[in-house]
From TrEMBL, chain A:
<dbReference type="InterPro" id="IPR013325">
    <property type="entry name" value="RNA_pol_sigma_r2"/>
</dbReference>
<feature type="domain" description="RNA polymerase sigma factor 70 region 4 type 2">
    <location>
        <begin position="143"/>
        <end position="188"/>
    </location>
</feature>
<keyword id="KW-0804">Transcription</keyword>
<keyword id="KW-0805">Transcription regulation</keyword>
<dbReference type="GO" id="GO:0003677">
    <property type="term" value="F:DNA binding"/>
</dbReference>
<dbReference type="InterPro" id="IPR013249">
    <property type="entry name" value="RNA_pol_sigma70_r4_t2"/>
</dbReference>
<keyword id="KW-0731">Sigma factor</keyword>
<dbReference type="InterPro" id="IPR039425">
    <property type="entry name" value="RNA_pol_sigma-70-like"/>
</dbReference>
<dbReference type="InterPro" id="IPR007627">
    <property type="entry name" value="RNA_pol_sigma70_r2"/>
</dbReference>
UniProtKB/TrEMBL annotation, chain B:
<dbReference type="InterPro" id="IPR041916">
    <property type="entry name" value="Anti_sigma_zinc_sf"/>
</dbReference>
<keyword id="KW-0862">Zinc</keyword>
<keyword id="KW-0863">Zinc-finger</keyword>
<keyword id="KW-0479">Metal-binding</keyword>
<protein>
    <submittedName>
        <fullName>Putative zinc-finger</fullName>
    </submittedName>
</protein>
<dbReference type="GO" id="GO:0008270">
    <property type="term" value="F:zinc ion binding"/>
</dbReference>
Length: 200, 237
């Protein structure tokens, strides 16, 4: 029998070396070191961008949400007690910021329906490349069929590479809830697999 | 142990392993969980197929670095926000000696600015140090206190007025005399006069009273302080 497939992990977000580095950056940020904070920001920008996009399914508020998240990190860096990984702490903040953003955007959409036609004439130029990326990625279409919580679990598993107990900690729910959300998400995404096979 | 029980246990094990597959492919499972998956997948075709599909999904999720350039622009915005906030609420909880040292990119500029300022002060002080009266005059001509009116700022007692029906000089003289005014400029092509009420010691309240008096005169159709009408230094046209 052949060996099991090995994962081709492009990035390792959670190596011990990285964690030590990030803990140090947070500690220096707590001391008011702007350069350390900028390093932390740059390290997490990509992760947060994709993480928040996959939960909110919108790219027009992502930078704002990222900055909200990192503003909390800047302000509360001294309260990080190192009992969890730096990524767990930061993604935990991002998760709830993203959920809050979904609620607020729903309210905004309710209140601004009459302006939608007008807004169509003023697309966000900075977001165009994201749209192109989205179109080219069939998986993004599959995400639309998932709930925000399911998307968060999928995102944190496949992209962030987190263990389910860490995801449970971030989402502040039982581990079995994480597994259940993943179970339903996989069922939905499985419908897209024929397309994936066709592409590969 | 009955075959039914074995089937139930096997089904439970299958379900548990099936649930763990996403975390097997992302390499986050601990050693015990990994062995559990490996042992089961060796004998379960369904889980083996699912594992391959999970592997494909996982690889699809690996994204590009296109976001790097966006991050720099966004960080600039956040830095502005932090700096704006620091003006309102200084970073007293952070043990940093000064604001200038927070973001190192501003340090070289700060050094240059301070050096330039020191050099400027030295140049200004040189005539005094060398006791050159002529040069001293030139320097004091540029000297202005905070209490001094800014250069080219119209005096507080300058008023522009427009008369109705082009009155003669005698009538104009009578009107201006009633408010202690005198013509300092005009009339322009449009018939605008600039007058001075009293002298530089005249109080603003007195000027306001004069304007009110002029406006009540039927021969005056416009009277307004120069200071509020146009930027400093502009002539009437």
């Amino acid at each position: 029998m052949s060996e099991l497939p090995e994962s081709k992990v492009r990035k390792s977000f959670n190596s011990n070396e990285q964690q030590v580095k990030e803990r140090n950056l947070i500690a220096e940020t707590a001391g008011g070191n702007g350069k350390a904070f900028e390093q932390l920001y740059q390290r997490y920008f990509d992760r947060l961008y994709q993480f928040i996009f996959h939960i909110t399914r919108r790219h027009d508020y992502i930078e704002e949400i990222i900055n909200d998240v990192m503003y909390v990190v800047w302000e509360k860096a001294s309260t990080y007690d190192q009992t969890c990984r730096p990524s767990t702490w930061i993604l935990g903040i991002a998760y709830f910021k993203a959920l809050k953003s979904i609620e607020q955007s729903l309210i905004r959409e309710d209140r601004s329906v009459e302006f939608n036609d007008e807004l169509d004439y003023f697309p966000n130029p900075a977001a165009q490349w994201v749209s192109q990326l989205e179109i080219s990625n069939w998986l993004e279409a599959g995400f639309d069929n998932l709930s925000p919580e399911q998307r968060a679990v999928v995102e944190m598993t496949y992209y962030q590479g987190l263990h389910y107990n860490e995801i449970a900690e971030i989402m502040q729910c039982p581990e079995n809830t994480v597994k259940t959300r993943m179970f339903h998400a996989r069922k939905i995404l499985a419908k897209l697999l024929p397309e994936l096979k066709g592409r590969s | 142990m009955s075959s039914t029980m074995i089937n139930v246990m096997g089904k439970n094990e299958h379900q548990k392993v099936w649930n763990l597959l996403p975390w097997y492919v992302n390499h986050s499972l601990d050693a015990v969980e990994k062995d559990r998956v490996r042992n089961h997948v060796r004998t379960c075709i369904a889980c083996r197929i699912e594992l391959q599909q999970q592997q494909q999904l996982f690889e699809e999720m690996q994204q590009t670095d296109l976001l790097r350039q966006v991050s720099q622009a966004a960080f600039a915005q956040l830095r502005k926000r932090i700096e704006r906030q620091s003006i309102i609420r200084p970073f007293t909880q952070h043990n940093q000696p000064s604001e200038a040292s927070k973001f190192p990119s501003s340090q070289p500029l700060g050094f240059v600015k301070h050096t330039a300022l020191a050099a400027s002060l030295l140049l200004l002080a040189m005539p005094f140090m060398l006791h050159l009266p002529a040069e001293q005059t030139a320097v004091t001509a540029e000297y202005r206190t905070l209490a001094t009116a800014p250069e080219n700022t119209p005096a507080h007692n300058r008023v522009r007025i427009v008369f109705a029906d082009q009155p003669d000089s005698k009538q104009i003289g009578a009107i201006l005399h009633s408010v202690s005014g005198r013509i300092v400029q005009g009339p322009s092509e449009n018939g605008i006069y600039e007058i001075q009420i009293g002298n530089r010691h005249t109080r603003p309240q007195e000027v306001d009273d004069a304007i009110a008096y002029l406006r009540n005169n039927t021969q005056v159709i416009f009277a307004e302080l120069v200071q509020g009408l146009q930027p400093a230094g502009q002539d009437i046209r």
